[in-house]
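Side project, low priority. Logging it here so it doesn't get lost.
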Amino acid sequence: MRRSVASLLALSVLAALLACGGSPAAPKPVSLTGTWIGTSATGTWNLTLSEAADHSISGSGTVQSGGTSIAVTVTGTHADPAVSLTLASSGFADTNYSAHLTSATEMSGTLNGSGFSNEVLVLDRG
Protein backbone atom coordinates (compact mmCIF):
# COMPACT_ATOMS: atom_id res chain seq x y z
CA MET A 1 0.00 0.00 0.00
CA ARG A 2 2.81 2.42 0.88
CA ARG A 3 4.45 1.89 -2.53
CA SER A 4 1.16 2.57 -4.31
CA VAL A 5 0.64 5.85 -2.48
CA ALA A 6 4.19 6.97 -3.32
CA SER A 7 3.72 6.01 -6.98
CA LEU A 8 0.39 7.81 -7.15
CA LEU A 9 1.93 10.92 -5.59
CA ALA A 10 4.85 10.88 -8.05
CA LEU A 11 2.47 10.53 -11.01
CA SER A 12 0.35 13.41 -9.71
CA VAL A 13 3.38 15.70 -9.43
CA LEU A 14 4.54 14.71 -12.92
CA ALA A 15 1.09 15.38 -14.37
CA ALA A 16 0.96 18.79 -12.69
CA LEU A 17 4.37 19.72 -14.08
CA LEU A 18 3.42 18.65 -17.59
CA ALA A 19 0.17 20.59 -17.40
CA CYS A 20 2.14 23.72 -16.47
CA GLY A 21 4.57 23.31 -19.34
CA GLY A 22 7.26 21.33 -17.55
CA SER A 23 9.63 23.28 -15.38
CA PRO A 24 9.14 26.71 -13.88
CA ALA A 25 10.41 29.65 -15.93
CA ALA A 26 13.94 30.76 -15.14
CA PRO A 27 14.13 34.15 -13.45
CA LYS A 28 14.85 37.02 -15.83
CA PRO A 29 18.39 38.37 -15.35
CA VAL A 30 18.59 41.79 -13.74
CA SER A 31 19.65 44.66 -16.02
CA LEU A 32 22.31 46.95 -14.62
CA THR A 33 20.97 49.95 -16.55
CA GLY A 34 20.49 52.86 -14.17
CA THR A 35 22.22 54.81 -11.43
CA TRP A 36 24.32 53.04 -8.80
CA ILE A 37 25.61 54.78 -5.66
CA GLY A 38 27.94 53.58 -2.93
CA THR A 39 30.68 54.48 -0.49
CA SER A 40 34.06 52.82 -0.13
CA ALA A 41 36.79 53.57 2.39
CA THR A 42 38.19 56.24 0.08
CA GLY A 43 35.14 57.95 -1.37
CA THR A 44 31.61 58.12 -2.69
CA TRP A 45 30.87 56.52 -6.05
CA ASN A 46 28.05 57.57 -8.37
CA LEU A 47 27.82 55.56 -11.60
CA THR A 48 25.28 55.67 -14.43
CA LEU A 49 25.37 52.36 -16.31
CA SER A 50 23.79 51.09 -19.49
CA GLU A 51 23.59 47.36 -20.26
CA ALA A 52 23.33 46.28 -23.91
CA ALA A 53 21.55 43.15 -25.17
CA ASP A 54 24.92 41.31 -25.28
CA HIS A 55 25.38 42.15 -21.55
CA SER A 56 28.23 44.58 -22.18
CA ILE A 57 28.25 47.56 -19.84
CA SER A 58 29.10 51.17 -20.61
CA GLY A 59 28.64 54.33 -18.62
CA SER A 60 30.16 57.17 -16.69
CA GLY A 61 30.25 58.60 -13.22
CA THR A 62 32.18 60.31 -10.49
CA VAL A 63 34.22 59.42 -7.45
CA GLN A 64 34.23 62.04 -4.70
CA SER A 65 36.98 61.92 -2.14
CA GLY A 66 38.30 64.60 0.16
CA GLY A 67 36.51 67.41 -1.63
CA THR A 68 37.76 66.29 -5.05
CA SER A 69 35.47 64.91 -7.75
CA ILE A 70 37.03 62.62 -10.37
CA ALA A 71 35.15 61.71 -13.56
CA VAL A 72 35.26 58.05 -14.62
CA THR A 73 34.32 56.17 -17.76
CA VAL A 74 32.91 52.68 -17.21
CA THR A 75 33.13 49.58 -19.42
CA GLY A 76 32.51 45.97 -18.50
CA THR A 77 30.39 42.85 -18.64
CA HIS A 78 27.53 41.25 -16.73
CA ALA A 79 27.05 37.48 -16.54
CA ASP A 80 24.36 37.25 -13.86
CA PRO A 81 25.18 37.42 -11.00
CA ALA A 82 28.83 38.34 -11.79
CA VAL A 83 29.71 41.93 -12.69
CA SER A 84 33.12 43.03 -13.98
CA LEU A 85 33.74 46.75 -14.53
CA THR A 86 36.77 48.76 -15.59
CA LEU A 87 36.77 52.34 -14.32
CA ALA A 88 39.02 54.67 -16.31
CA SER A 89 39.95 58.25 -15.50
CA SER A 90 42.38 60.65 -17.16
CA GLY A 91 45.68 60.75 -15.28
CA PHE A 92 45.04 57.53 -13.34
CA ALA A 93 45.62 53.83 -13.96
CA ASP A 94 42.46 51.79 -14.59
CA THR A 95 40.57 50.44 -11.59
CA ASN A 96 38.84 47.05 -11.76
CA TYR A 97 35.62 46.40 -9.86
CA SER A 98 34.78 42.72 -9.51
CA ALA A 99 31.34 42.22 -7.96
CA HIS A 100 28.26 40.03 -7.64
CA LEU A 101 24.65 41.10 -7.54
CA THR A 102 23.30 40.37 -4.07
CA SER A 103 19.80 41.48 -5.11
CA ALA A 104 18.13 43.35 -7.97
CA THR A 105 19.15 46.61 -6.26
CA GLU A 106 22.59 45.87 -4.79
CA MET A 107 26.00 44.66 -5.91
CA SER A 108 29.00 44.02 -3.70
CA GLY A 109 32.60 43.65 -4.74
CA THR A 110 36.19 44.83 -4.55
CA LEU A 111 38.24 47.54 -6.24
CA ASN A 112 41.76 46.80 -7.47
CA GLY A 113 44.31 48.87 -9.39
CA SER A 114 45.26 52.56 -9.34
CA GLY A 115 46.09 52.40 -5.63
CA PHE A 116 43.15 50.19 -4.60
CA SER A 117 43.84 46.75 -3.16
CA ASN A 118 40.73 44.66 -2.47
CA GLU A 119 38.84 47.72 -1.24
CA VAL A 120 35.19 46.79 -0.62
CA LEU A 121 32.53 48.75 -2.51
CA VAL A 122 28.80 48.08 -2.19
CA LEU A 123 26.69 49.84 -4.82
CA ASP A 124 22.95 50.35 -4.46
CA ARG A 125 20.57 51.20 -7.26
CA GLY A 126 19.77 54.92 -6.95
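Brief comment: Residues 43 and 65 are 4 Å apart (CA to CA).
Revisit when time allows.
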